[in-house]
Every structure is written in C-alpha cells, then in structure tokens.
Fold this protein.
Amino acid sequence: MGRFLQFAGLVAGLIGLVLQFAITIPASMSAGRGLLGSVVFYFSFFTILTNVAAVLVHASLLSPTGYAWFPAFAGRLVRAGVAAAITLVFIVYATVLARLWAPEGLFFLCDVLLHYVAPLIFVLWWLIAGADGRTRWRDISWWMTYPLAYLAYALIRAPFAGEVPYPFLDVAKNGAASVAIASLTITALFLGLSVLAVLADHGIGRLRK
C-alpha cells in the first residue's frame, strides 16, 4: 500500500505541477509579465513549492536514482515536515482560499490535484509507511524555517513585484495589522500541525514496535 500511494502521489503531483506550469506561464505572460517573471510568479506560491517537495520525497524513495539525486528528501526529517506543510496547504485552501475564486477547465483540475488529491495521498502515505517513530521535538524548529522563510520572501517581494501570491498577505489592501494577524494565525496553525506530526509519528512508532 505504501508503494502504491507513493506512485499515486508522484503521478498526481507531477501532473498537477506540470499542467499548472503549462497553463500559468502563457496566462501570466498575457497579463504583461515576461518569461522569467512568469516563472518566478509560478514558484512564488506556497502550494507549488510544497507540492514540489512532496514529489521529490516520493521520487527519492521510489528509485535508487532518485535517492541519489535527492537524498535529503528521503530522510525522516523532511518527510514529516512536508506532511505538516502539505496539510497546511489543504486546510488554508479549503477554509479560506477556495471561496475566493471558481476555477474552470484545466485550472479546476490543477486546483483539485494540488490542493486536495496530492495532500491527501501524501499524508496517507506518511501515516502508513513514511512515519517511523524517529522524529524529535527539536525537529519542529527546522520545519518552522520553511513557512517563515516563505512569508519573509512573499512580503519582501510584494512592493517590488506589485503583487502578492495570496490576498491575505496584501499589506496595501488589507493593512499591516490584518496581514500580521493572518500571518501569525497561519504560523500558529503550522506549529500545531508540526506538534501533531511528532505525536503521530511517535504513536505510529510505538504501534509498530
């Protein structure tokens, strides 16, 4: 089952990422961005970066070649951290972002694959085969660097690019206080998910023993 979920997650993630890239770049260039700016825009979304990480985890564990290319993504530290991050992707999108737009056609397919299917498969795989009882509480400090670094990047890029990847990060429109509250809330949510990840990993480790 673990192997099947890895393969399914790899396929779903790759299809979603490649298809999203294929439709985002032309649309972005039509909106006035150059090719490089469109690529940067594509990789400026937490959803995209996290799904890339999930795909690399699957790829690193499915083949010896993948493991040689991405050894860090095969380790328990990254596996559990990605599980927490991709759960955050699902929760924030389902509760906040999904109601802000109504994608159609290929955009809808990408939306489902990257926000629902890939996260669900990854978390199921991690619970069944990826967790091994070896996570440590200090690992949370490493996991937290990812959302905090992303938040810093998004806020620093905003005044130069004139855009933000997510509406709740728009200081010009919402004000600094609103963005600070949203940022703290999501950071706290990620911290809570990280704590749950450690507890789940320890529980699974004890069950296997």
